[in-house]
Each structure stands twice: as structure tokens, then as C-alpha cells.
Amino acid sequence: SERPVSNNVVNHDTEVIKPIQVNPSEIKSEVPKDVPMSSKEKIKIDTRLGVFDKFRKFQSHMFSVVGEAWSVLSSSRALCLGAQTSVDRLYELVELVKNWSGPMSIAVFVPDIELAVGLRYIQYLRSCNLAIERQVSFHLIYPVEHQGTTNHPDLQGLDEVVGNMDCKQPKQVLKFLLNVRSKEMLAWRESYPYPQNLLRNLAKNGCQTNYTYIPDIDMVPTPGMDIQLETFLEKQEKKNNCSKCAYVIPTYEISINSTHLPSNKTELLQFVKDKQARQFHQALYSINQKSSNLKKWEKIPETEEIDIAYKVEKYIFKYEPLYIARGDTPAFDERFIGFGMTRNTQVYEMYVAGYSFYLLNNAFTNHWGFQSLKTRPQWRARQQEQNNARFDEFAKEVSAHYNADPYKMLDQLKKMNLKHVKVAYGTSKKNNTVAKKEEKKPLQEDIKKVFTR
């Protein structure tokens, strides 16, 4: 599996390279011959028809692109994967789809010229990857103050070659297309508040199945996990038909020094023993999965089928597991924008609403790289502080809505004093997340790969 390069939207140390002049007749196509011609047609959307979010800060275009087998898969499967991403991370979909055969609902953040880039890159992915063409539906979102644009002078002439770019180089193709972004755009783009929860809601709402699974685009399931989950959910439906059960799937960070991702629990446990894997956010935010008690989970041997291992006995504030549940779980609260308080507030509302969380015995997802505090930029810490300050109001609303406060949260808000908590950040100049390796070859050389076999 190819390792991603960076968690950041842009790298200001990266030189902006002018698009390479290419003669379309000189490019050798690697597009599969059995791919329908319809997938090569230019994808279009009308930006005048975008739907506002409730704060009227963003506009979205649901089902801008629909998977060829979307309806069939959505009606025959119990589970849909919904994920969100910024356009610069969309290449991660290639690795994600390898281990998921069901419907996938992907929400993509595409401000300004990134909309034009996103449309062309989705066209490229669909031309190159039959699974993406069949299984994936895309939803596109951009901010009102940086409205998406579908055309740009620097992109003229690329339309006829996008479908012929090297299918083996999805990362480099995306790099090439993103070079159209100006220095002026890059100046605001990296630290622009990323609407994670809005994107998660759109991805989840796009799912047409009874159950949903909402990871991030870079959280990779193990081979065959989706089919095993289908079997598990079918059994659960017959057994107890629980409407407020969430089935937790642990996430592990995998060292960038590893040659591959672990494909099953037995291999994962060996990775952990060899210090090539560890619990997600173990060093950065250990409370993230503390309620899951993964030390207990790691002591349970792998079995042939996925089943419930044990129930989460104690909810701890800021718990934010990945889980599978019915599609009518509470929405992700969209007032939390940028980083911090995004996933865990939704899980907190589930807890107040009476949901129970159960660890699954064999299932887990992989995330490349060990994360650490030194990779957190200052702007990200500031966004987390702003979201912390919004929590008091959120907690009071949730308690009033459900007429419940099982965590005695309202009594603790004053003592927690989240409005005034300062968040630490790293001092690294590059902030190149340890989760991803920097490429060794010059960017110009990588870009050339786009047009070679």
C-alpha cells in the first residue's frame, strides 16, 4: 500500500510549479479498455444550485457524481461507508476502496479553484478505477466566501488529457492539478477552518443503507472486513434488532517504517508487540479511545467471525470511537468547525441519548504513522480553543433536548472551564505529520511521472 505524503492541506515550503506543457497525442493511455465512455465525459455542476448549510456559510452539491452500481449496492447491502476529505487528500480513496466492496459516500471540500481540480480528478479516478466508478458517490462542498469555480484559464487544455494521465500515479496526478492554485490562495487555504462535521453529515446523509460507518478518508479497513460486517449485522438484526447500539471498530496507527498495513488482528497484535503499531492518538490524545479499553481487546485472540467482544462499561468524556450504527444516530454538530470537539461531541450526544457501545472482536482500521504533538500547528491549536469555548452551550442544549445528564456534565462545566483552556501546539516549522513520509524526489520529477508509463 502506498503511504500518503502529508496531513496538511498545503506545504508553504513547496515550490509552486507551472503546469507542464504536454502534447495530448504524446500521452500513452492506461485507462482500462472495459471502462464505459460515459466515465470519460466531463463532469459538470451548476454553482448557482448549491444548497446552503443552516448557518449559510457553505454550499453543497449532493450526488454531484453517482456510482454506476450505487442503487444496486445501496439496496443489497446493510452498510455504507461515508467519509470526508479535502481535495488534496482525495488520492487516499484509491487505497480505501481496495478493502471496501460496498457503497461509499464521499464528501469533498473544494473551495475556489479546488472545485475545478476536484471535478477533473474525480473524472480521472473514475476512468482509472472500476471500483470507484461503480461504488462511490461524491458530494462537493465549498464556502460562500470562497465559492467554488469550475473553470480556470490554467486548466484549459487539460480536460482532454485528464482521462489519459497515468493511472498508476494518483498522488502525482493530483499534485499536478493542484499546481493551478495561486500563492494568494495558498496564503489562506491551509489554516482555513475545515468544516469536518458538515462534511461528515453530508457523507452520512448520502448513505442509503440502514447502517453507516463514518471513518476519515485515511482510515483503512482490513481486507474482507466489509463482508464480515454484513454477516454480523444480519445476525444482530435477527437476534435483538437493537436500535441504539453502536459497534466500535478500534483504530491503530501504523509505523511509516512498516512495509504494509496489518491485514488481520493476529498480524496487528504482532505489530503492536514489535512497536510497529499503537492505539490511535496514543501519544497525542490518549483519551480518544480510553473508554474502549484496548488493552483488554488486544488480549482477545482472533476468531473466524466478527462478533461482539464486550460492552463499554464506562463512558469517559471526549471518547471518539469509530463505530457502526443505524443511520439515524444524532448528527455531528456543525457549530464545531475546524479542529477539536468534532467527533467526540457527537459521541457525547449519543451517550446522553442512551446509546450503548460494544467493541467488536476482530475488526479494526489502520492509519499510517505515529502522530505527536510536535506536528500540531499553532492555527490548529487556536481552532481547538475556539471549539472548546462552544462546548458549554452545546452541552446545555443536549441535556435539555433529552432531559438527561448522565455524566453530570452541567455540574462540571464551571470547573472544566473549557472557554479558557489553552491548547498546546508544536514548534516544528514544517509540521509534516509523522504519519506521512516526505517524498525524496523533487516535485518537478514527480510531476513528470503523471505523463509517463
Write the layout of secondary structure elements.
Layout: E1 51-52, E2 58-65, H1 70-76, E3 79-86, H2 93-98, E4 104-109, H3 114-128, H4 130-135, E5 136-143, H5 159-162, H6 170-178, H7 183-189, H8 196-206, E6 211-213, E7 220-221, H9 225-239, E8 245-249, E9 251-254, H10 265-273, E10 277-279, H11 294-298, E11 308-311, E12 322-326, H12 343-353, E13 356-360, E14 365-368, H13 378-402, H14 409-416, H15 443-449
Parallel strand pairs: 3-4, 3-6, 4-5, 8-13, 9-14
Antiparallel strand pairs: 1-2, 2-5, 6-12, 7-14, 8-12, 9-10, 11-13
Helix pairs in contact: 3-6, 6-15, 12-13
Question: In words, what does this structure look like?
Answer:
It contains 15 helices and 14 strands. Mean pLDDT is 86; it is low at 1-39 and 429-447. Helices cover 32% and strands 15% of the residues. Strand 3 (79-86), helix 2 and strand 4 (104-109) form a beta-alpha-beta unit. It has 453 residues and is of the alpha/beta class. The radius of gyration is 22 Å and the shape is globular.
What does the average pLDDT come to? Answer: 86
| N-end to C-end Cα span | 19 Å
The main β sheet shows up as: 10 strands, mixed
Order of helices and strands: EEHEHEHHEHHHHEEHEEHEHEEHEEHHH
Number of H/I helices: 15
Helix amount: 25-40%
Q: Major sheet: order of its strands? A: 1-2-5-4-3-6-12-8-13-11
What percentage of amino acids are in beta strands? 5-15%
> How large, in whole angstroms, is the Cα Rg?
22 Å
User: What class do helices, strands and sheet pairing give?
Assistant: alpha/beta
Question: What's the total count of β strands?
Answer: 14
Query: Outline, from the CA principal axes?
Result: globular
Low-confidence stretches: 1-39, 429-447
